[in-house]
Amino acid sequence: MSQKASKLFNNNSNGQSLIETIVAIFILTTALSAGVGLAIYAFGSSQVTLNEITATNLAREGVDVVHMMRDSNWLAGDSAGGANAMHVATSGADTCGDLGAGKACYPNAYSGPSFNIVSACVSNCRISLDSNNNWTLDSTVDYSLYLQPSGIYSTTVNGTATYARMINVTYNQISPCSPSCAVSNKEMVVKSVVAWKGKGCPAISFTSDLLAQGTTKCRTIVEEHLTNWKDYQ
Questions:
Q1: What is the 3-state secondary structure (H, E, C) of 32-88?
Q2: Among residues 176, 195, 193, which one has the least CA distance to residue 62?
Q3: Are 117 and 110 in contact (CB under 8 A)?
Q4: What is the full DSSP assignment across the chain?
Q5: Backbone CA torsion sign across 59, 61, 64, 69
Q6: What is the pLDDT of residues 167-222, one digit of tens each?
Q7: 147 φ, ψ to 5°?
Q8: Cβ atoms within 10 Å of 185's Cβ, excluding its own
Q9: Nearest CA to 187 among 198, 171, 202?
Q10: How far is Cα 150 from Cα 140, in angstroms, rounded to an integer?
């Protein structure tokens, strides 16, 4: 091969190597960009899932606490409750209006003696866990929940609140319990509403009615219907 032909061949080889390098870099960059985008999407999706799971568990806990309070009032009203023993209806028009005379009943299933759900939750209320690990209900209009060092969420201020929980209590007014039945014999409708703040979440106030702030994807509601069924004898 002549010197001129050899030089031309080497120049062509160098040009092909440069093109191959550019193509390889382009393919690598495209693959990396797709990988990074997928990782960002997966991270965002996992955070949304975490928020939804946490909110659902907190909402479920809220309903369970009200359920526990109703059951605690029953237990305190049993014959073993001493001074808080269950009431005995003296007539069909007594506070246990759906029972006849001489029947044992529980007119305070929602109002005591252990927990007064009726007075605490006139409409909306807050559930708190005190320092003695006792649950309480109150009408404080600040539903913020804070992550504690122990890993639980409570109303004790600690940093910035990312979740809030409100308990909404109403009573079924459908016949035959409208309007004749006492509150103690009505079906209690408990809604535990949990909202959270995060990416993609619309502005929502933790110090006002969580139900009355329009539709938002950053909120979950768990609903349960409780009855004073020990009176249904």
A1: HHHHHHHHHHHHHHHHHHHHHHHHHHHHHHHHHHHHHHHHHHHHHHCHHHHHHCCEE
A2: 193
A3: yes
A4: --HHHHHHHHHHHHHHHHHHHHHHHHHHHHHHHHHHHHHHHHHHHHHHHHHHHHHHHHHHHHHHHHHHHHHHHHHHHSGGGGGGPPEE-SSTTSSSTTS-TT-EE-TTTTT-SS--HHHH-SSEEEEEE-TTS-EEEE--S--EEEE-TTS-EESS--S---EEEEEEEEE---TTSSSSS-GGGSPEEEEEEEEE--TTPPP--TTS-SSSS---SSEEEEEEEE--GGG--
A5: negative
A6: 999 988 777 666 667 777 788 999 999 999 987 787 889 999 999 988 788 999 99
A7: -75, 125
A8: 24
A9: 171
A10: 24
**Domain ranges across the chain:** 3-231
Retrieve residue 82's tokens.
Answer: 């001493």
CA angle 23/26/27 to nearest 5° reads: 90
Q: Can you give the pTM of this predicted structure?
A: 0.74
User: What is the rounded (10 degree) CA torsion for 19, 24, 25, 28?
Assistant: 160
User: Residue 70 contacts by C-beta under 8 Å, 6 or more apart in sequence?
Assistant: 109, 110, 115, 117, 188, 226, 228
Q: Are strands 135-138 and 153-154 parallel, antiparallel or unpaired?
A: unpaired
Q: Each residue of 37-92: pLDDT tens digit? A: 555 554 445 667 888 999 999 999 999 999 999 999 888 877 555 555 566 666 55
Q: Report the candidate in 184, 190, 189 with the shortest Cα–Cα distance to residue 228.
A: 184
